[in-house]
């Protein structure tokens, strides 16, 4: 699917709106790296392969089960855990065992993140290993205070409210002074309710969009999303200009 949602669809970036922010919280997949890259499709394919091997299914049947679990439970892993006694850590190691050489260091993004005042954290439904390896490939190593991965959240995924509560408590984050940057609209509902500034990061116009159809925002941007951008580095620069 090709991206078509315009950048900054809700409102222009006003630095005054970010003056009290002391914590910047980033999703990982399709947020810190371009959604048009091949990283998420590689992970997505390995989830399908894992399900095929586990249940002896053909590719189409495994794919259908994977996407059913993803839409219903927030991650395919959570759906598998609800219906089967699987080894979650083994699953995570398998699906994140990918080649990251196709992504290049993103110097403009690194500079924009480094210039942010306050703390910088990653909150991901993926694994810590995947987050750190991907950050290194992007040239972002050392720019984040910590990674709160799905294991840190007791294997509950965003958008479960308990995940955000555990994240905020563990890191002592005041949500009314924090920003959440994320590519999945439903994962911004709870952050907005908690008082965070919410930013939906979308693919650049014309790029392939790896998100599911139900995840893609049309022209009518939901009220729980404060900003929409297809240029993460540019957005961050504008927010603290």
Can you walk through the features of this model?
By secondary structure, the chain is α/β, with parallel strands linked by helices. It has two domains: 15-35 and 104-239, HAD superfamily/HAD-like (Rossmann fold, 3-Layer(aba) Sandwich); 39-95, DNA polymerase, domain 1 (Orthogonal Bundle), CATH 1.10.150. The chain contains nine helices and six strands; from the N terminus they run βαααααβαβαβαββα. It is globular, with a radius of gyration of 17 Å. The protein starts with 22 loop residues before the first strand and ends with a helix. Residues 1-7 have low confidence and may be disordered.
Provide the descriptors you would attach to this structure in a database record.
single chain; 241 residues; alpha/beta; Rossmann fold; DNA polymerase, domain 1; six-stranded parallel beta sheet; 6 strands; 38% helix; globular
List the helices and strands and how they pair.
Blueprint: E1 23-26, H1 39-55, H2 59-73, H3 76-83, H4 88-95, H5 107-114, E2 119-123, H6 128-137, E3 146-148, H7 161-171, E4 178-182, H8 189-194, E5 197-201, E6 227-229, H9 232-239
Parallel strand pairs: 1-2, 1-4, 2-3, 4-5, 5-6
Helix pairs in contact: 1-2, 2-3, 5-9
């Amino acid at each position: 699917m090709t991206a078509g949602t315009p950048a900054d669809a809700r409102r222009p970036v006003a630095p005054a709106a970010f003056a009290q922010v002391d914590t910047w919280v980033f999703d990982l997949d399709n947020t810190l790296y371009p959604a048009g890259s091949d990283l998420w499709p590689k992970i997505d394919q390995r989830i399908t392969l894992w399900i095929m091997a586990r249940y002896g299914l053909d590719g189409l049947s495994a794919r259908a089960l994977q996407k059913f679990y993803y839409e219903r439970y927030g991650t395919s892993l959570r759906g598998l855990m609800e219906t089967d006694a699987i080894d979650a850590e083994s699953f995570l190691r398998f699906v994140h065992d990918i080649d990251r050489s196709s992504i290049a260091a993103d110097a403009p993004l690194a500079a924009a993140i480094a210039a942010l005042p306050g703390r910088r954290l990653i909150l991901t439904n993926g694994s810590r290993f995947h987050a750190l390896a991907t950050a290194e490939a992007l040239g972002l190593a050392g720019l984040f205070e910590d990674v709160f991965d799905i294991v840190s959240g007791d294997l509950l995924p965003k958008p479960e409210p308990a995940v955000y509560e555990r994240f905020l408590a563990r890191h002592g984050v005041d949500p009314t002074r924090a920003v959440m940057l994320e590519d999945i609209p439903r994962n911004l509902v709870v952050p907005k309710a908690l008082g965070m500034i919410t930013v939906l990061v979308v693919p650049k116009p014309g790029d392939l969009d790896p998100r599911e159809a139900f995840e893609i925002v049309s022209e009518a941007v939901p009220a729980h999303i404060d900003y929409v951008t297809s240029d993460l580095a540019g957005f961050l620069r504008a927010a603290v200009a």
